[in-house]
Every structure is written in structure tokens, then in C-alpha cells.
Amino acid sequence: MIKKTFTFVIYKVFVKYLTYSKMDRSETIEEYYAKHPFLKSFDVAKSNSHFNIIPIAKQHQMENGGSVTFGRRDFFKICIISGKSKIHYADKSFEILEHGLLFTNPQIPYEWEVIGGLQEGFTCIFTESFFEGFGDIKKYPVFQLGGYPVYELTQEEHKSLTQIFLQMQEENTSTFEFKNDVLKNLVFQLIHLALKIRPSTSLSLEKNNAAKRITTLFMSLLENQFPIRNSLEGLSLRKASDYSSQMSIHVNHLNKSVKEITSETTSEIISKRILKEAKILLKHSSWTISEISYSLGFKGPAHFSSFFKKQTQISPSQFKNLEL
């Protein structure tokens, strides 16, 4: 168990400064509300479960030309869009020529670039806990890594799906006792209808920006594994190939992108992050070296000690006993 109070504070502060850059930090739902003055303030302390639907035209009047900067959000979004725009999602770019449907989740950073004219439609935002006990929202392909998050819509599809958003908007303001159940059903209805529509074919891989987006996603997946809170649960993503598989790209593509942006190899970055976590656990936890080694994905203490000594020239036990 991690030591409480002071050592835990040190641990959290240390972890904060281990992040790759500010672009890896997720926008919280409170921050989202704070930058949209026309929305009522939101206090996450009152409830982690949240749902809202927002007109896009009004939302974009409050933002930088309507565009949404590249990054992650700690909530889910479903947007129906009318207007010319580009959506940059991980290493892919999708162009919306007239009407589109967008799905985003907390794992994957994205950017919405308005090309011209006023955007219209609706943004539906919700937390995962809103669906607690009602179904696993993350299991659907539209919210998974490697899935297709953007769907081009015909006029008829746009009209039909817009009606669902209008129903959600009406229900969201009602006083009906079971309105949340209705809203959940409408969200699932949206997802099921989208899965019957072909994904967007207006897809282009933009070499320069794609490398940055791939690197950001890699760093995000890496950092999301820390801090380790349970010595019995090892790292699920340990090698470059683990990350490329999760991102649905070839490992060579991942390695090339990371090297281009950071001047380091994927394996070097993973090793550095594991080493930093190892130092934190050795100094600020009561775990044994054996527990630390397994929690970091090593086959055993001998493999961990060999790794640690190669990186630091001293053994884990020697580091643990060093005076701060």
C-alpha cells in the first residue's frame, strides 16, 4: 500500500511533473463548462454522473472561430455537425463536407478544425458513470481505439438523427421522473443507428500532424497507466508493440512517429517512464522489491534489478536505502 498523507502528496506531485507535456492533460468537465459562459456552472463534487446536450452554433460563438484544439477530454461526446470542417483524430483526419456525426471518448485526443461558415447541430456530453448499471458504453466500436469515430450523413440520415438529438434536448429539460433512462435509451439508439451507416470515406493521413497526434496518443496511453495503485496488477502495455496494437497501427509507424517528434525511441520513453515509477515506488511505498518488479511488468525481481542497475548503475535495494 502507498504510504498516506505526506508521502502520498510527494508521490502525486512527482507524477504531475512526469507528464510529457500539457497537451497530454485532459480537459475536465468543469473546465469545459467554465469556458462556455452561456452554460450553467457544473459542480462535479455533487455528482460524477452527468449528461447534457448543447447547441453547436451557440457553443462555437464562444470559441476560437468554432475550432476545438487538439487534446483529450475526460468525458464522452456525440456531435451532429452541419458545416464544412476537418476532424483530426489520433493519426487520422476526416473531412466533413456537409453533414457528419462524431463520437469521442476520454482515451483519444482529437481536434475539430472549422474550415468555413457557421457550424450547426448539437453536442451531447456525458460521463461514463451516467450509464452505470445500464450498459457498457465503452464496448461500442465508435468509442474504441482503432474504430471509426466519424460518419458522413446524407440529408435523410441527418434529418433522422437530428430528431433524436431534439428528443434528447426536450427530455433533458423535462421533469419526468425517469428522464435519465429515456436519455440513455436515446444515446444507445444513436449509436446503433450510426453503426448501420458507413464510416466516413473522406479520410486522409496527414504526415506532419499525424506524427504529432500518434505521439500524443502514445504518451497519453503510457501516462494513463500511472500511478500504479495495486501491486498485484502489472502494466498492461509494456512494449512498443503493445501500444501499436492498442492504437491499431503498425509498430514501425509508431516508432517512426515517436522518433520524429521526440528524438527518442518508443522503447527508450517507455523505459524512462517505468524507471521513474520504480524510483517513486522504491522511495514512497511499503511494497517489497518483488512486488514492485511484478507491478511494473517484469518477470521477477532479477529481471527488474538487472533493468534498474543498467539504468542507474546501482541496485533497487541500494536506491531504496539512499538518503533523500
From TrEMBL:
Pfam families: HTH_18
Keywords, alphabetical: DNA-binding, Transcription, Transcription regulation
Domain HTH araC/xylS-type: 212-322
Molecular-function GO term, any one: sequence-specific DNA binding
InterPro entries membership: Homeodomain-like_sf (IPR009057), HTH_AraC (IPR018060), Tscrpt_reg_AraC-type_HTH (IPR020449)
Superkingdom to which the source organism belongs: Bacteria
SUPFAM superfamilies tied to this protein: Homeodomain-like
Protein's UniProt name: HTH-type transcriptional activator RhaS
Species this chain originates from: Chryseobacterium fistulae
Underlying gene: rhaS_1
